[in-house]
Write a structure and sequence with these properties.
It is a single chain. With 342 residues, the protein is an all-alpha fold. The chain is 82% helix and 0% strand. The chain has 12 helices and no strands. The termini are far apart.
Length: 342
């Protein structure tokens, strides 16, 4: 079996187990747990060792504490709180790019969700913190189990080629771009946390995807992956409505993971990059989870889901516009410096 085929099976089987644990054990915000598991399952390379997992858990705990401490600052000194949040986000993106850490997205989600939840209600902080910690633990477990069933062959010395690290200037520019994409949605979420919590997770995913997107293709990448994720969520919801139970939810999400994973890892040829399909899969989970909660609470699922899709499309258009404007500004600045030197 080829290495890419095993990667697809690891993603599908790992997400199958994550859905079983998250929804079967009735963990708080189970779709957040599944989302963090997907981030870890899409991580290239071997599963996260226990020691490194403890380091990530420690960093996550520090960020959760920092997020809680940001709540009174945001409530009483909003401008200073927002500026400090922007500085922390920039640092997380920058050092994540410089160290090629694929778990940067988890840290950014943690730091942005907790302050917004604390502004809304202190009890919600506990719920989100438990969901984030559970998501990391579930992600480590399912990633290890899936690698145990579908291990990669051992690499011979000299076969593993690590990508070169991103230069400081490029990392600084990408981190600035990602921060400017996340920060406005973070500010909006402070005004209506319950409505924008899912949008924050979507925006962080967009910021990660926009880091490598070019201005010409950013619209198709960012908006297209959002619409693809909405289409996948609609298909899974339709299949789940035929026979609504946990096992059907697990099977339908696993099918979506197999279909998108084949394109993420290059088993099926696609005109879109792997980041397009991973973002679509995460968008599906972000849309599907709240829809399941709306159905359990007796809310209008169709209206709530439509508003979320429109919000996500709007956020994607903003991310596209941000990439386009910043790239145009950077190009004009470089051209002006070139003429000044000549």
């Amino acid at each position: 079996m080829a290495r890419a085929d095993k990667a697809v099976l690891r993603l599908a089987s790992g997400l199958f187990l994550a859905v079983l644990l998250a929804y079967g054990l009735a963990l708080p915000l189970p779709f957040v747990v599944c989302l963090l598991a997907v981030m870890m399952l899409c991580k290239p390379g071997p599963p996260l060792p226990i020691l490194k997992g403890m380091v990530v858990a420690l960093l996550l705990g520090v960020l959760l504490v920092g997020g809680v401490l940001m709540v009174p600052l945001l409530q009483h000194y909003a401008l200073s709180g927002v500026m400090l949040t922007g500085a922390v986000l920039y640092a997380l993106f920058f050092f994540g790019l410089r160290s090629a850490n694929p778990l940067t997205m988890i840290l950014v989600v943690s730091f942005t969700l907790v302050p917004v939840a604390g502004v809304a209600e202190q009890a919600l902080v506990t719920v989100i913190s438990v969901a984030l910690v559970a998501g990391v633990l579930v992600g480590v477990v399912v990633n290890g189990v899936s690698h145990a069933f579908f291990p990669d062959p051992p690499e011979l010395p000299g076969m593993a080629v690590k990508p070169p690290p991103i230069e400081r200037e490029a990392a600084s520019w990408i981190a600035l771009r990602a921060t400017l994409i996340v920060l406005p949605v973070f500010v909006l979420a402070l005004s209506n946390p319950s409505f924008y919590l899912a949008a924050i997770m979507k925006t962080v995913a967009l910021a990660q995807q926009a880091g490598s997107a070019r201005a010409r293709s950013a619209g198709r990448e960012l908006v297209g992956s959002t619409l693809m994720g909405a289409w996948m969520a609609m298909l899974v919801w339709f299949g789940l409505s035929l026979w609504p139970n946990l096992w059907m939810l697990m099977l339908w999400i696993t099918g979506a993971a197999l279909w998108s994973g084949a394109r993420i890892f290059g088993v099926k040829a696609s005109t879109f990059r792997p980041s397009f399909w991973s973002n679509a899969l995460m968008t599906m989970l972000i849309l599907l989870g709240p829809a399941i909660e709306d159905s359990a609470n007796g809310s209008d699922v169709l209206a709530a889901s439509a508003s979320r899709v429109l919000l996500f499309v709007g956020v994607s258009l903003y991310a596209w516009a941000t990439v386009w404007v910043l790239e145009r500004w950077r190009a004009s600045r470089s051209q002006a410096l070139f003429f000044d030197r000549s």
